[in-house]
Write a structure and sequence with these properties.
This protein has about 60 residues and is mainly α. About 55% of the residues lie in helices and about 0% in strands. It contains 3 helices and no strands. The termini are far apart.
Length: about 60
């Protein structure tokens, strides 16, 4: 059987990542996109991950 990179990648992601589905009002999209760009992020996802990482690293607010 030949190596199937697509299947390998799918399995890797399933084993190593947690997908979070988030619903926000549509009128937030432009504001979020603009803020992510202002903060130098290439995507909204990258911006949100950075915010989560910052909160998890914050020892002053009871985070982990």
């Amino acid at each position: 059987m030949a190596f199937d990179k697509k299947e390998y990648d799918k399995k890797y992601v399933a084993e190593n990542y947690w997908r979070i589905n988030l619903q926000v009002p549509k009128n937030w999209k432009a504001k979020i996109t603009q803020k992510a760009k202002e903060d130098g992020k290439e995507s909204i996802s990258a911006w949100i991950k950075d915010i989560i990482q910052e909160k998890l690293s914050d020892n002053s607010g009871g985070g982990h």
